[in-house]
């Protein structure tokens, strides 16, 4: 979408995260999370809730907690799924 010049908003990312969750694309969901921060969507409450749900679904409770606490440092290296 970005390569084709499609303008993304918070709702776009919510749908992408839901899609990743439904088919088990955990790493892609994490990449989406990184993109959210780069595009300054990181503090959007709707997206935070989606990220928390995504991470909890796959047992990444610590990452979900970091999102909840609005932490900016995320360590994905220890997650091996």
Automatic annotation (TrEMBL):
Q: In its UniProt record, which GO terms are filed under biological process? A: RNA modification
Gene Ontology MF term list? RNA binding
Q: InterPro entries from the entry?
A: PPR_At4g14850-like_plant, TPR-like_helical_dom_sf
Membrane-spanning intervals of the chain:
none
Entry protein name = Pentatricopeptide repeat-containing protein
């Amino acid at each position: 979408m970005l390569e084709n010049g499609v303008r993304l908003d918070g709702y776009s990312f919510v749908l992408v995260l839901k899609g990743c969750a439904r088919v088990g694309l955990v790493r892609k969901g994490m990449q989406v999370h990184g993109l959210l921060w780069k595009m300054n969507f990181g503090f959007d409450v709707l997206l935070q809730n989606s990220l928390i749900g995504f991470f909890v679904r796959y047992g990444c409770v610590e990452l979900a907690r970091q999102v909840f606490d609005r932490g900016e440092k995320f360590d994905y290296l220890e997650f091996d799924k």
